[in-house]
Design the sequence.
């Protein structure tokens, strides 16, 4: 079955569209990607 995903929840948008900072950060965390500085120096 194909399930509809609302546009605001399209995580793939991080790869295909310019996003506002808040959406970019939210999607980035959903795919488990962290800023390099955080990866090298965790809080």
Sequence:
């Amino acid at each position: 079955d194909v399930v509809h995903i609302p546009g605001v929840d399209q995580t793939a948008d991080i790869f295909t569209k310019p996003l506002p900072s808040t959406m970019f950060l939210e999607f980035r965390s959903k795919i488990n990607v962290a800023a390099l500085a955080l990866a090298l120096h965790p809080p």
Summary: The chain has a mean pLDDT of 81. The two ends are 42 Å apart (CA to CA). The first helix runs from residue 13 to 16. Residues 14-40 form one domain.
